[in-house]
Protein: Group XV phospholipase A2
Amino acid sequence: MRLILIFIIAFMYVINETKPWKLTATQRSPVIFVPGDGGSQLEAQLNKTVVPHYLCEKVSSDYFNIWLNLELLVPIIIDCFIDNMKLTYHNDTRTTTNTEGVSVRVPGWGDPFSVEYLDPSKASPGNYFKDVGNMLVNQLGYVRNLSLRGAPYDFRKAPNENGEFFIKLKQLVEETYVINNKVPITLIAHSMGGPMTLLFLQNQTQKWKNQYIKSLITLGAVWGGSVKALKVFAVGDNLGAYVLRESILRDQQITSPSLGWLLPSKYFWKDTEVLVQTQKKNYTLLDLQQFFLDINVPNGWEFRKDTEKFQANFAAPGVEMYCLHGVNVSTVERLYYKPGVTLDSYPQLILGDGDGTVNLRSLEGCLYWKTKQKQKIYHQTFAGVDHMEILRNQHVLDYIKTTLSTI
Ligand SMILES: *[C@@H]1O[C@H](CO)[C@@H](O)[C@H](O)[C@H]1NC(C)=O
Ligand SMILES: *[C@@H]1O[C@H](CO)[C@@H](O)[C@H](O)[C@H]1NC(C)=O
Ligand SMILES: *[C@@H]1O[C@H](CO)[C@@H](O)[C@H](O)[C@H]1NC(C)=O
Ligand SMILES: *[C@@H]1O[C@H](CO)[C@@H](O)[C@H](O)[C@H]1NC(C)=O
Ligand SMILES: *[C@@H]1O[C@H](CO)[C@@H](O)[C@H](O)[C@H]1NC(C)=O
Ligand SMILES: *[C@@H]1O[C@H](CO)[C@@H](O)[C@H](O)[C@H]1NC(C)=O
Structure:
């Protein structure tokens, strides 16, 4: 008896050591999370000679969590954070670099933890794919690092500077497929992760997609840009936390080429639509360059030029798709500067329909492909569910659960 027990334990041990997934694999479609803007952990290491404030650290012996680290967003320290997090644009190479003496890396490739929690200490404002992840694990038997993976990237940069991400994502899909008994993958993408995934899929052959991809689930995907990006260039964004000053965070936000990629697409907005209204001049998409000059962010126009080509390719993803998004949440569609005020002041935000961040027309971009591909496209809206709440709303979680239980 005793011997048999030892034998069994040893046997289990051997199996566990070599191929742990053989024991735990689920036959459900394995999931890879593709995050949006701000949706990946970032780590920084410092070796600086110049800092904006004497309280700022110059040298760090090792990499530390910089995004999202709430301790770094308090007064004064936030100035250090901005300097460490911002990018410098070089218009000759049309690429960006970190501040001199700062190295930034994206931890946890493949590990869902890196996108479930932006703050590794798990402080709640940093919860990201956490609720979707917990639902998949607790209710559907998914296993982190095996049938549930994460694909983080440096969200500050646009696709032209994220070439490595697309190569690695293909490898991650293939690897995840293999370790799950060749069950095709479901990609779950949020916000900017939607168009990132679209670019990725457009670049693969149909044969590859048929073999490796089961479906794509998008949550609040930014298919055609958003006026919100223009608002961030103009006045910044407080990330939904009222204690944070938009105007301070803006200093970092306006250095991100990805924000230029998220500007309203000319395939979704007409040249005649006023995006910014002032007494003297109205700005439409045709006046975007002038607008960036007038708000003194000339690089905004460079980012636009560098990324417009990624908006231009709107070929269908070529995979079965579930396009989920909120509606009926007030969403900025125009900046209105009252007569007499300059572009330095705070505009009134004229609101329209959307999910609070992305305009409705952009969220609905997926409908365009209904007649452009033979794989099915399911479209589901959630009234009153905003751009971030879609990651934790019970109806959304139920929809994802049902979808993954039946495909
Ligand atoms: C920091 O940079 C200096 C040169 O600027 C270099 O000599 C030193 O080795 C660097 N320190 C670390 C820890 O990388
Ligand atoms: C790059 O920026 C410099 C200085 O702002 C400017 O003089 C130059 O024309 C720019 N070059 C290009 C290619 O945009
Ligand atoms: C996933 O893998 C990473 C890297 O190997 C590891 O640090 C982490 O603990 C793993 N997570 C789980 C839940 O096993
Ligand atoms: C598409 O494929 C080309 C050629 O392999 C590669 O250079 C490019 O980075 C890829 N782009 C994306 C978005 O995957
Ligand atoms: C700007 O647009 C608004 C609304 O479309 C219009 O009423 C106004 O006259 C325009 N102003 C200018 C300066 O063109
Ligand atoms: C949006 O709200 C309006 C007014 O509150 C309501 O009439 C409409 O039915 C709502 N639309 C959706 C899709 O829920």
Remarks:
- The radius of gyration is 22 Å.
- The chain has 15 helices and 15 strands.
- The first helix runs from residue 2 to 18.
